[in-house]
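In this section we walk through a basic example: taking a raw amino acid sequence and producing a predicted 3D structure, encoded as discrete structure tokens. The instruction is simple. Fold the sequence below.
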Amino acid sequence: FGNFHPRPGTEEMVEAAHSLVSGAGPHVLVLTGRVGGGMSHILEAVGWAPLDTSRSVRYDLAGKFVDRLRFSHEHDAKEDLETLMAWYRSRHTLLLDDMGSERDTGFAAEKLVEIVEDRITHSGRLAIATNFTKQDIQCRGSERLASRLFQGNQTLGEVRVVSVDVADYRA
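The resulting token sequence is shown next.
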């Protein structure tokens, strides 16, 4: 977190990331906003904190995550799908960056829902960065994924969604 240069509009994102790392509040954090808003930077900062306590962390681009699972179906794959999913489930913290970049398939949506549900059910930490809105995900045909990631019922306390509205840091 130390090398992040906050701007107006990033305060909630930084606070939510600290809460996720400390275990206060929901174990699933969704950062949504425009490209260049610092979400990937904060996602990586979330990943460094558990490493300081020797806990396991996995950072993946969402597209690569889904491709890795998809390739596990091949007959000459080194890992089968269930073994790979179990490995991901065993990580203390899972970080999926750029969700929405994966190929839009039923398989992708199904496996993303499976990971989100597992994290909610078993209190594993999950942080996702995406440029997509709930409506974007619904339009891609994944009502279940949109419902789980963008929970409107805050009394459930399962997912925290932070909308990041800042200008591109690279501009």
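Looking at the output, two observations stand out. The radius of gyration is 16 Å. The first strand starts at residue 28 and ends at 33. In the next section we compare this with other chains.
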